[in-house]
Design a protein that fits this description.
Chain A: Belongs to the nitrite and sulfite reductase 4Fe-4S domain family. Chain A: Keywords: 4Fe-4S, Heme, Iron, Iron-sulfur, Metal-binding, Oxidoreductase. Chain A: Its cofactor is [4Fe-4S] cluster; siroheme. Chain A: This is Sulfite reductase. The complex is a heterodimer. By secondary structure, chain A is an alpha+beta fold. Chain A folds into four domains: 105 residues, Sulfite Reductase Hemoprotein, domain 2; 157 residues, Sulfite Reductase Hemoprotein, domain 1 (2-Layer Sandwich), CATH 3.30.413.10; 92 residues, Sulfite Reductase Hemoprotein, domain 2 (Alpha-Beta Complex), CATH 3.90.480; 136 residues, Sulfite Reductase Hemoprotein, domain 1. Chain A has 18 helices and 21 strands. In chain A, β6, α5 and β7 form a beta-alpha-beta unit. Chain A starts with 5 loop residues before the first helix and ends with a helix. In chain B, 20% of the residues lie in helices and 19% in strands. Chain B has a single domain, classed as Aldolase class I (TIM Barrel). The longest helix of chain B has 11 residues. Chain B is globular, with a radius of gyration of 16 Å. The chains are: A alpha+beta, B alpha/beta. Chains A and B meet through α1, α2, α5 and α6 of A and α3 and α4 of B.
């Protein structure tokens, strides 16, 4: 992974002392609430229902064992023993004390971590696919490019006071697990006919109040021009994005109102000036960044492991876990393991200090001391020997981390909701739990098969409900918490937005509603059809009919 | 006259900022005065004001585009860009465009809600002077000059990005 040099350390230290000074001036009354607000937000600090919430940046989801151990000790010393993995691959603390923050941030800096630009109207943490570098049939490893974007976007002097927040995702894998098309900028790595690397650039995607799929602004951007092109897009947005209404301020609204062709013309007019300037990327810089993500010291191993195969035959639960949570690796004898943090009874994406230390040890022992936070709020060990799978599984069982639900109905993506978040209209965690309890049977879940279910506590859509096969969103109905249900969303390369079925439901009705949706699917599916395929074939009507049918 | 920081030092401010409400008639005699006029006033009185080449500057609000000056930017000794609120970031881009695309060489002044915590970013975008709000201590603003010693990016003041230097 990327290792900070003196420049990175120095800038991080300068930022910490800058924020320390800002906090002191705020506490002394020299900075007003209004003046302090964007400063604390750009340092990751929200004020929530119960306490401040601190969002720690995990650049493109990548963590070392050392970093995760530090996060575990912070969880224990500054919080209540658990932290939350967000849908943007970051980690959130719900209970830090304001006066302890400088110390907390200083501890984070010891392991090259921080909370910079995790909030506020600036360029946020760049995200990517959690299988980057390990996936089968990968087009190009996205991590070096994410690191290049991380450095370009960090403390960018021109774009710290944008009309609204700005999120960039990069995807170099065949299957897109980064929800690339619903980002302000989505970048797909691809090769031209000469085999040269470039980017397909999408702009104006996003969820929230006005969900939109990004539009293609450039079919093939040679890699050298990545940063000058991003600068041009950002400049047009900074100057022309709406600032009169925060609900219309995202770049998606600008792109939609201008139309992609006019927007492209404006970007290209700006790019004329920046193109081929010194900001143009060099092979040396790309090589430097790539050197941090070189292939680990893989052993030469046969693809199949005999002992593992024996265990698969003798231990059915292990087989379930492997079938669901283990993916193919580009290297023979290796595989990708994802630990599902969706154990019923715990909030989706929550992890305890003890579990963090356990996973840090696992990664150190079995996966070159690295792991990834996924945007589905799970943890991936990307480079595991197939022959170690059974040991890993048995160890995970002791820490409630062997849930074989990955990609199944109970692998729910869920925001913190009304239990924590001051923006939420409704709670989301209890909804997730009620659904998980209703479907808590592996055979049944496995029978239903691949499906995504996303829950957000409000239209800000942190739970990405617009791109869930089933999406649930909390709404306020005359002061009471209600839930709308939507169907047909997809976050992948064929991104689609879910459509609301009809009138909203009370909290206690939700498990029955989900049950009816699933039953229609099971009754109607043909052959190996996944839920989303059956929905695409049938449309909304049969689902709607079943849910809203009046009892005779 | 409000205080001014230019090229890193607190100096006397000789330029009078004319607000948007002031008409050309109420300016009185222009001789021997250094004035920064709103772009609208300048556009409406181009012929008259052009005679005072070295003593007329121009200022733009954040929703007014300095690109309209095109190559004429360097006819002005000073161009000021307003921050109606420190949260309105448009003047950062206008500043960078004036320096990088219109090749403006004169004094570029940040006016309006100019605060200590944004001044290092303003410097990187090419601002050379800062009009200090009445409620602000100039020495506090000066401390903001040194928040960061380095930039990752290519900036107006340091066009060679860090990756070409490290």
């Amino acid at each position: 992974m990327y290792i900070y040099d003196n420049y990175d350390h120095q800038m991080l230290e300068e930022r910490i002392s800058q924020f320390r000074d800002q906090t002191q001036r705020y506490l002394a009354g020299d900075l007003s609430e209004e003046q302090f607000l964007p400063l604390r937000l750009q340092n990751g600090l929200y004020i929530q229902r119960m306490a401040p919430m601190l969002r720690i940046a995990v650049p493109y989801g990548l963590l070392s064992s050392t970093q995760l151990r530090k996060l575990a000790s912070i969880t224990r010393d500054y919080d209540k023993g658990y932290a939350h993995l967000s849908t943007r691959q970051n980690i959130q603390y719900n209970w830090p004390q304001l006066e302890q923050l400088p110390d907390l941030l200083a501890e984070l800096a010891e392991v090259s971590m921080h909370a910079i630009q995790t909030s506020g109207n600036c360029i946020r943490n760049t995200t990517t696919d959690q299988f980057a570098g390990s996936a089968l049939n990968e087009i190009e490893d996205s991590r070096p490019w994410c690191e290049i974007i991380r450095q370009w976007s960090t403390f960018h002097p021109e774009f710290a006071y944008l009309p609204r927040k700005f999120k960039i995702a990069v995807c170099g894998t065949e299957v897109d697990q980064a929800a690339t098309q619903v980002h302000d900028i989505g970048l797909y790595l691809l090769k031209n006919e000469q085999g040269e690397i470039g980017f397909k650039v999408l702009v104006g995607g996003g969820l929230g109040r006005t969900p939109l799929i990004g539009k293609v602004i450039c079919e093939y951007l040679p890699w050298q021009h990545l940063l000058t092109y991003l600068d041009a897009i950002m400049r047009v947005y900074n100057l022309e994005g709406r600032r009169d209404n925060k609900y219309k301020a995202r770049i998606k609204i600008l792109v939609k109102s201008l139309g992609i062709d006019v927007f492209r013309e404006k970007v290209e007019a700006q790019w004329e000036f920046g193109k081929d300037s010194q900001a143009t990327l060099t092979q040396a810089e790309v090589d430097r960044c790539k050197s941090f993500f070189s292939t680990p010291a893989f052993e030469q191993l046969p693809n199949e492991d005999e002992a593992t195969n024996t265990a698969l035959q003798s231990d059915l639960l292990f087989k379930h876990w492997v079938d669901r949570n283990v993916d193919l690796h580009k290297q023979s004898g290796y595989c990708i393991v994802t630990l599902c943090l969706k154990d019923t009874g715990a909030a989706p994406g929550d992890i305890t200090d003890r579990q963090m230390e356990f996973v840090a040890d696992l990664a150190e022992r079995y996966s070159f001391s690295e792991l990834r936070v996924t945007h589905e709020q799970n943890l991936t060990l990307a480079d595991v020997r197939t022959k170690d799978l059974y040991e890993i599984y048995k160890a995970c069982k002791t820490e409630s981390l062997a849930t074989p639900y990955l990609g199944l109905l109970n692998d729910i993506v869920c925001c913190p909701g009304g239990d924590f978040c001051s923006l939420a209209n409704a709670k989301s965690i209890p909804i997730a739990e009620a659904i998980q309890r209703r479907f808590d049977n592996f055979d049944r879940l496995n029978e239903i098969g691949d499906i995504t279910l996303n829950i957000s506590g409000c239209m800000n859509a942190c739970g990405h409900h617009h791109v869930g096969n089933i999406g649930i969103i909390g709404v306020d109905k005359k002061g009471a918490e209600f839930y709308q249900v939507a169907l047909g969303g997809d976050a992948g390369r064929e991104a689609r937005l879910a459509k609301i079925i009809g009138p909203s439901f009370a909290q206690e009705e939700i498990p029955d509603v989900i049950e009816k949706i699933i039953q229609i699917y099971l009754d109607e599916r043909q052959n190996d059809e996944k839920f989303i395929d059956t929905y695409q074939r049938l449309g909304m009507a049969p689902f709607k009919e079943s849910i809203y049918a009046k009892a005779d | 006259m409000p205080k001014l920081i230019k090229d890193g030092a607190l100096i006397e401010n000789n330029w009078r900022l004319i607000d948007k409400e002031t008409g050309i008639d109420s300016l009185g005699s222009i001789d021997n005065k250094q004035l920064i006029v709103p772009v609208k006033l300048w556009l409406e009185n181009k012929e008259l004001l052009s005679q005072y080449k070295d003593t007329i500057g121009i200022w733009f609000d954040s929703d007014e585009n300095p690109a309209l000056l095109d190559d004429d930017a360097n006819n002005f000794p000073i161009i000021a860009l307003n921050f109606p609120s420190f949260r309105d970031g448009r003047s950062y881009s206008h500043a960078a465009i004036l320096r990088q695309q219109q090749n403006f060489k004169g004094d570029m002044r940040a006016i309006g809600d100019v605060r200590r915590d944004q001044v290092s970013y303003m410097l990187s975008c090419g601002f050379s002077s800062f009009l200090i709000p009445d409620d602000m201590d100039a020495t506090v603003l000066l401390t903001g000059f040194h928040d960061f010693s380095e930039n990752y990016q290519s900036t107006v003041t340091k066009p060679t990005p860090l990756f070409r230097r490290r």
